[in-house]
Amino acid sequence: MESLFQCGRVVSVAAVASSGLAFGFAGTASSATSTQESGMEMAQRVLATIPLIDGHNDLPWEIRNAEVPGDVRAYGLEGRTAGHTDIPRLREGRVGGQFWSVYVPVTAMEEGVAARTQLEQIDIALALIREHPEHFELAQTAADVGRIFAQGRIASILGMEGGHVIENSLGVLRAFYELGARYMTLTHSASHDWADSSEGPFRHGGLSDFGREVVREMNRLGMLVDLSHASDATMSDALDVAQAPVIFSHSAARALTEHHRNVPDSILRRLPENGGVIMIVFYPPFVSERQSAELTDVADHLDYVKGLIGADHVGLGSDFDGIPTVVRGLEDVSTFPDLLAELARRGWSEAELRKVAGENILRVMRESEVVARRLQ
């Protein structure tokens, strides 16, 4: 989530060939060249066998702020919504796994209602899953994701956005894990009592002693440590402490786009040793220094990370329904196959496409579960 907004109706520029399959393949325009067709064909093969897992989607917050606040049924996911996400477009985009962000703004911390608001957001996300059992199922492990995908449904994983929601309590952190939260972004748009945000103010020079304890407890639980929104020092401190792979659920490479929300090379180079993954975001200001951005800009960031640290450490983290502007060619959840097709045209192998689509984040989940069992 980068800002609160009510977006207008958005229309994908991707040409889509309809099919009756639960995970329908996205098609190519009739004027497509043979190279484009080959790229899309490779994307289709990949998405038939590996769940495409998006690291960050703020649909629960959109539902909270909809015309009928918090009412999943009234939001109308079975048809076209005003936002970036609905069931037909998720199917069109071949989404097999989705981290639903259960975002809580820092204003809730300032008002003293962060934990309560977090519970309400988890309730909305669970209702989203419960109201559409033919399409969604809650996933709490990597094995769950594989099983749910094999059954033709979308594995739904909960990710908390902002460590302020635990209100300085490891007990609250454990309770949120029991409710299904499987990652937590250590900070959001402001620093708090135990961690510095990329937006400041820089109060601790990274993590406080308690912040390090939070990371250790997340590793013990099997909750992924998400470093998107964290300051550089917080990123570094978390990597010093973490025994399990970390993630960046929705960030990009600072070497290509100079923005405090992006990740510097000094941190990216530490991911191979840690085993972590950066999931590239689709927000124009993070992937382009122009006024607008294209699908090719997102592909450039994916290329850059692959070239710097390898294809084992990159994934996709759209931030759909949490961004006020979109990348041209990646307007909504229906467009994921177009991005994979572009990577194929750039020379990514089928094995590399499988990694970026879902295998990397599934590996991170499995390794986190192994670490948790050892620490417990």
CATH topology type:
TIM Barrel
Secondary structure class reads: alpha/beta
Rounded to an integer, what's the Rg over CA atoms? 19 Å
Say how many strands there are.
9
Main sheet summary: 6 strands, parallel
Q: What portion of residues belong to β-strands?
A: 5-15%
Q: Mind telling me the CATH class?
A: Alpha Beta
Counting DSSP H or I runs of 4 or more residues, the number of helices is 16
Distance between the termini: 32 Å
Q: Taking all residues together, what is the mean pLDDT? A: 92
Q: What's the architecture in CATH terms?
A: Alpha-Beta Barrel
Q: Spans with pLDDT under 50 lasting ≥5 residues?
A: 3-34
Number of domains: 1
Oligomer: single chain
Q: What is the CATH homologous superfamily assignment?
A: Metal-dependent hydrolases
Q: How are helices and strands ordered from N to C?
A: HEHHHEHHEHEHEHEHEHHEHHEHH
Roughly how much helix do the residues carry, as a percent range?
40-55%
Which geometry do the CA atoms define?
Answer: globular
Q: What do these coordinates show?
A:
The chain contains 16 helices and nine strands. It has 376 residues and is an alpha/beta fold. It has one domain: Metal-dependent hydrolases (TIM Barrel). The strands form two sheets. Strands 1, 2, 3, 4, 5 and 6 form a six-stranded parallel β-sheet that branches. A three-stranded parallel β-sheet has the order 7-8-9. Helix 1 packs across helix 15 (336-345), helix 1 (34-49) packs parallel to helix 16 (350-375) and helix 14 packs across helix 15 (336-345). The model is unreliable at 3-34 (pLDDT under 50).
